[in-house]
Amino acid sequence: MNSGQFSNYQTKSFFDEMFYFDEKTVVKPHYEKVYKRLNGLSADELDAKRSQAVSSFLEHGVTFTVYDDSDGIERVFPFDLIPRVIPKAEWVIVEQGLKQRILALNLFLHDIYHQARILKEGIIPKEIVETCPYYRKEIIGFDVPQDIYIHICGSDLIRNEEGTYMVLEDNGRCPSGVSYLLENRAIMKRAFPKTYQSMEVCSVEAYPELLLRTLEHLSPRQSQKPVCVLLSPGVYNSAYFEHTFLARQMGIEIVEGRDLIAIDNYVFMRTTLGLVQVDVIYRRLDDDYIDPLFFKNDSILGVPGLMEAYLKGNVSLANAVGTGLADDKVTYAFVPEMIKFYLGQDPILESVPTYLCWREKDRNYVLENLDKLVVKPANESGGYGMLIGTASTKQERNDFKFRIKENPREYIAQPIISLSRHPTFCDEGVMGRHVDLRPFILYGKDIEIVPGGLTRVALKKDSLVVNSSQGGGSKDTWVLKN
Amino acid sequence: MLSRVADNLYWMSRYIERAESITRMVEVNQSSSLEFIEDALSEFWEPVLKAICASEIFNEHTKIDIGQFLFFGSGFPNSVKNCFLYARENARMVRDQLSVEMWVELNNIYLFFQSGQAEATFLQNPQEFFQKVIKFSLVFQGLSGATIPHDEGWRFMALGTYLERADQTSRMLDTLTFQKHEPTRLDLLAVLRSCVAQTAFRRQYKGELSMTNVADYLLFSRDFPRSIRFSIRCIDENLHSLSGVPSGNFSNEAERLIGSSLAMVNFTDIKIVMSNGLHQTIDDLQRKLINVGQCIFETYVLLPFELQSAEKSTFIQAQSQQQ
């Protein structure tokens, strides 16, 4: 262990994905081949592989946009060459847990927008649901196509100090990142072909096909080949690359609001040959923006009249309207109850203990212990607006105290979990950096998960925030076949 | 295909062709300008600036080097840097229509201009810079011929390329009519070279370099790919292959206009043009070509009911017809 790229590597007190500590640092068996290959590389070879990866991303325009960034609009999502490896046995359990979870979330959404049994039986407080900004009372009683609400779900998983997988949050609106997963894999196969082959890694390439099948499953016109489109907010959206990538891989049109037109409760796209009826819209646009007439705003991104066509059943949307309720971090706290209530099962994957500032008892505890907790806004994404107690100043804590008291419903707190770490190439050499995992779950005729997901890594030293907008990068994730 | 996608492909090609034309023009004129002392320089460039409608904007930016203005001037909407920015923005919206090679080439030239590397190369080694830009455009055109299907989208790209090319050639020719004096040998050669036509011209006219011959060649050559007649014929062919209507007939206003322009260049000769006035003829042609562009948009992008009520249309033409 004391030579090569990993010579100065220390696991410290963290749970490390690649090594365990038993008097000395030892490589875990499922990482042995990766370790040998990387450790044998010279610094020059490594640099060459890294710059190859970066220029490949840049040339292909695999970029994302950071809002409010003055130094240029597009950036390459930093990519780390050390793959994360997950043994089959671990993955099988994670997969079962994710399937259980998406089932429960869908049953929950169906219930909320129909009989609301879970509220009537007092398992989830009614007030919580009704005050969620993404709760859409407009669709109460509406039967969504195939009775599925969340067709594409990205749940973020972390591992705690013991290595236990836990769900950190669910993204049931428009989770992004799957294009990086696919591009990362393409690059790794080029950079380390032999290692990849010899480790027998599960392929992820089927994702676009599975996604298209999931979308086609929703078509209101089953008599003919469904016309599916991907609705994007446009070229300035941070995930635009992903939108074109997926549309291209599926062979469907990528449209913007102005390409669609609703006439007499049907939706059409404008083509050079005239109007063509659209059956399924994979929309990468939040509810608020899809129809300015229905959601009463002056959004120019959406399609006036789309919601009428949707409610008449003439066009399907993926994900359905109203799924943001499942993203709410207050709702998140009740997922274990949902699993018991709807499925009669115990949750396979743990959740992170969550204090709801909305509850007086929890709030008092949070206010007393701000320096030990992480406080998150209930309805933000991208890692914005968080307070990490241990790394905060007194001023920031006072600021948060004020905000929590002002608006307790909008804040939750969790104990700070020291995410597992993974060896990562940094300027100083190979260092341990915190990682999470975002798998992508597809719910169509069946529930399908491409093995693994996008491993996100916090590149800044000691940082626990992995979001790309906060200086995070990504790794390829290798789930082993055996 | 999606109407907007057709529109994006059309504009992507137009901007690339425009960038190439401007580059060729500056390359040629910069070498000619070496024959002049510095005081006479602004007079030398004036006809060129006039022909590309940049004269007024340039004069607001005194003290800028003309090359830097035409390539990088942020205040000049058609600077080569801006052309590549717009071309790439359009391409970004239709990446699924392009081959990976096409995208990579376009993205690389865009990054080259954005990084400041372009400006440095331009200052240190202008020749290398010109070659790089021109080569990009040629490689891109080669790739679009060789790596994607020649389907509907490809036709819209061709329409953009040839409309722009006809327009640019007519502008190059027009510089001769903006001269304060009779065009000199040097002026005539500069125009031919801006259109890469000097060798082909010599072969046809065996050295009889005159204003009439130059105008005749650039307007009416049957087979020179940058002549106005050649470009108009390509526009006509592509429009008819989009609609399926045989050439010589028309099913929309764009086809009618281009058909009448084609008849004009097919059945006029240079004597008539010179007696009517070269500038007048060029001006009429340019106006017709702008109308053709507008009619393509109305035919293939707008819906019939939006034509009548322009204000109700949510689909406003985002990219103005330049100049």
Architecture overview:
The complex is a heterodimer of chains A (482) and B (323). Chain A has 15 helices and 25 strands. Chain A has helices at 32-39, 43-59, 88-112, 117-120, 126-130, 178-191, 193-199, 207-216, 240-250, 287-290, 306-311, 329-332, 335-343, 360-368, 394-406, and strands spanning 19-22, 24-27, 63-65, 74-76, 79-86, 152-159, 165-171, 228-231, 253-255, 260-263, 266-271, 274-277, 280-283, 316-318, 350-351, 355-356, 373-377, 387-388, 411-415, 421-426, 429-438, 440-443, 447-449, 454-458, 472-479. The longest helix of chain A is centred in the first third of the chain and has 25 residues, at 88-112. Mean pLDDT of chain A is 91; it is low at 68-72. Chain B folds into two domains: 1-147, no CATH class; 148-303, no CATH class. Chain B is 72% helix and 0% strand. Chain B has helices at residues 3-33, 41-51, 55-60, 66-72, 80-93, 100-114, 117-124, 126-146, 152-177, 185-194, 198-205, 211-220, 228-243, 253-266, 270-276, 278-300, 304-308. Chain B is globular, with a radius of gyration of 20 Å. At the A-B interface, helix 9, strand 9 and strand 11 of A face helix 1, helix 5 and helix 6 of B.
Q: β content of chain A, as a range?
A: 15-25%
- Strand portion of chain B, in percent? under 5%
How many structural domains can be distinguished in the coordinates of chain B? 2
**What is the name of the CATH architecture of the domain at 89-180 and 201-343 in chain A?**
3-Layer(aba) Sandwich
The averaged pLDDT of chain A comes out at 91
Dominant shape of chain A: globular
Briefly note the CATH topology name of the domain at 89-180 and 201-343 in chain A: Rossmann fold
CATH class of the domain at 89-180 and 201-343 in chain A: Alpha Beta
Number of alpha- plus pi-helical segments of chain A: 15
Give a short account of the largest sheet of chain A.
Answer: 5 strands, mixed
Strand order of the largest sheet of chain A: 5-25-24-21-20
Q: Determine the structural class of chain A based on helices, strands and strand pairing.
A: alpha+beta
Query: Number of helical runs of chain B?
Result: 17
Helical/strand content category of chain B: mainly alpha
Helix content estimate of chain B: over 70%
End-to-end distance of chain B, in Å?
Answer: 29 Å
Separation, N- and C-terminal Cα atoms of chain A = 26 Å
> Segments of chain A where pLDDT lies below 50 for 5+ residues?
68-72
Output the radius of gyration of chain A. Answer: 23 Å
